[in-house]
Hints:
The chain folds into 2 domains: 138 residues, no CATH class; 128 residues, no CATH class. It has 9 helices and 14 strands. The strands form 4 sheets. A 4-stranded antiparallel beta sheet has the order 2-1-3-4. Strands 9-8-10-11 form a 4-stranded antiparallel beta sheet. A 3-stranded antiparallel beta sheet has the order 6-5-7, with helices on both faces. Strand 3 and strand 4 form a beta hairpin. Helix 7 crosses helix 9. The longest helix is centred in the middle third of the chain and has 28 residues. It is elongated. The N and C termini lie far apart (50 Å).
Amino acid sequence: MKKSALFLVILVGWLIQTGEAIGQTDIKKHPSCPLCGMDRKQYSHSRMFMEYAEGPSRGTCSIHCTASEMTVNRDKTLKSVQVADYKTRKLLPAEKAFWVIGGNKPGVMTKRAKWAFRDKKEALVFIKENKGTLADFRQAMEATFVDMYEDIKMIRERRRKRQTEMPDVKAYPECKYCGMIRKEFAHSRALIEYQDLTIVGTCSVHCLAVDMALNTNHSPKAVMVGDYRSKKLIDAEKAFWVLGGSKAGVMSIRGKWAFEEQVGAEDFINTYGGKPAVFDEIIKAAFEDMYEILR
Length: 295
């Protein structure tokens, strides 16, 4: 009897793991959105997956990019359109989902968010906590096209600001210690300014820690780091940090990522794991991890 119970527990666990693995196969097949290039694993809560009768399948980061994809391929026959359940991140038929339009939670590639839920109760709980309006897939798609022009303007403006807000990359194009191109690692780069006005640009917290170790006789005036999402420089002391997780770090096995907003850090943890941290903990971890890199 005990053996049977143990076998049942193992079997159920295996089925759950298998189901979760199957639910993520679209990300392995389509790791990045073909329209905007965003990491679909990071946006697994808003991602969509389409299959055409003529093939091939397509995976996007959001309903915004799905609408664009469907417009470009309007001559193809859609076999299925799936969307991730906001809570579980598992795919389900978009037409069967309970959608929430709007609310105070920032959307993906859009000002007016559109989220999908498998369970109507979960959608209503979300609305109670974050506001928004209950809708079906047709209404969500209509809203997406209505918002398209303003969303495109918003995305372009963000990218323009991102380019203008990265003068440090032009001034310090390469990391002082490893030589890596800081533009390529804008999401992890750091900039430290000392009281004597000396400025050092690095590719990561790892190289920032190296610089701090070599300049103990100088007091930092400001330490800035790239926001993981927007890539703009933010105050390292005020940032919401994530330590660890499954995403490999820059110059470090253990990732150390900064976010200007807490919701960004929370979304990252939900997708990749890791734990919240403050800047002091991040610098301490950087030194702890250095030996592993040198071995």
